[in-house]
Amino acid sequence: MKAIRYHEFGSTGVLRHEEVERPVPGPGQVLVKVTATSFNPVDDHIRLGVLAEMIPTPLPITPGLDLAGTVAGLGDGVSGLEVGDPVIAMFPLDAHGGAAEFAVLAADLVTAAPRTVELADAAALPLTGLAARQAAVELASIAAGQTVLVNGAGGAVGSLVVQLAADAGAKVTAVDGPQHADRLREYGAEKVVGPLDLDAGPAAVGGPFDVVVNHVRLAPEDLAKLTPYVADGGIVVSSAGPVPADEERAVRTAGVWVGPDAAHLADLVSRIDDGRLRLHVVDRRPLAELPAVHEEAGKGKLPGKTVILVATAAGVAGG
C-alpha cells in the first residue's frame, strides 16, 4: 500500500513516499481503509523532533493523527463494528498513521462518522474537535449566561470553541481578523473584534469575562496580560502556552493537552448531525502533496484547516 513516512526527524525533506506492507489488525484492533486524514500544527512539531522527548514515538512514523475511512477488517474480540462502516478516530500522539491507504488502531478509539458531512471532510474533526471540547466543556465548563472571550476564534479549534460555547448558551466575544467575522457570527458569536490590544485592557472589548480561551501563540509576557481579562472566580484556558493564575481573585488557569477519546468524539459527531456544530475545511489536497502542506505550514502559508485525501470518498459518510 502507499504511505508517506519519515525515518528520521527533520525538515520536510524527510517525508518519503513509500510502498509498505498492509497492516493486519491484532486482537482488539480495527483495520481502516483510509479516506482522508488532516494536517495539524503538531504534525510539524513532531516531524521536527521538537516533541521527541515529551512524546517518545518509534521511527519510522506515518504522520496523520486524524483518520476518516471505512472498516476493512476486525481483529479478534472486536464487536460493535462491521466491515464497511464509516468511522473516524484520533490516533494517540505517540502512534499516528493517517497518511496511508490502510491503518490499524485500537477499536475502542473509533467512533461512527457523521452522517451529514462528506467522509473526507470528517477527517477535520477528531483532534481539533477533541481539543475544543476539552477547552470548552471539560476544563472551562462553559454554561448558559456566562461571558466567554475566544482569542484566535477563526482557527480550526477556536471556531469549534465558539460554537460549543454558543450552544451552551454563553455570550461569546470572538477575537480574530475581519476575514473571519461573518462566519464567527454565523457560529453564534455575539461580538467579533479584531486582534487584541493587550495593553488596552479587557474593558476595550467588553470584559472582563467569566471564561477566556486562548489559541494565539504569544510571548510569555503577553500571555500574562490575558489574566486581567478574566473576571474574579473565572478561568483562562490556553492551548498556546501557559497563562498565569491570580489566586487573590480566584482566577484559575488550565492548559489543553488533547488525546483520543471515542466517547467525546461521538458527542461531537452527534452535535454535527444535529446541526449544532459545523466544520470549516479550507482546502483538500491529495496524499502526494502532504510534504508541500508541511512546507507551507512551516512558512505560515497554510490557509486553514486542510484535509489530506488518501482515497476518494463515495458520497456522504454512510452513503
What does this structure look like?
The chain has helices spanning 41-48, 126-139, 156-167, 181-186, 220-223, 262-273, 290-298; strands at 2-5, 16-19, 29-38, 66-74, 86-90, 102-106, 110-112, 147-151, 171-175, 191-193, 209-214, 230-238, 252-255, 283-286, 306-309. With 319 residues, the chain is an alpha/beta fold. The protein folds into 2 domains: 2-125 and 279-309, Medium-chain alcohol dehydrogenases, catalytic domain (Quinone Oxidoreductase, Chain A, domain 1); 131-255, NAD(P)-binding Rossmann-like Domain (Rossmann fold, 3-Layer(aba) Sandwich). Strand 8 (147-151), helix 3 (156-167) and strand 9 (171-175) form a beta-alpha-beta unit. Helix 2 crosses helix 3 (156-167).
Please name the defining characteristics of this protein.
319 residues, alpha/beta, Quinone Oxidoreductase, Chain A, domain 1, Rossmann fold, 2 domains, 7-stranded mixed beta sheet, 6-stranded parallel beta sheet, 7 helices, 15 strands, globular, disordered C terminus
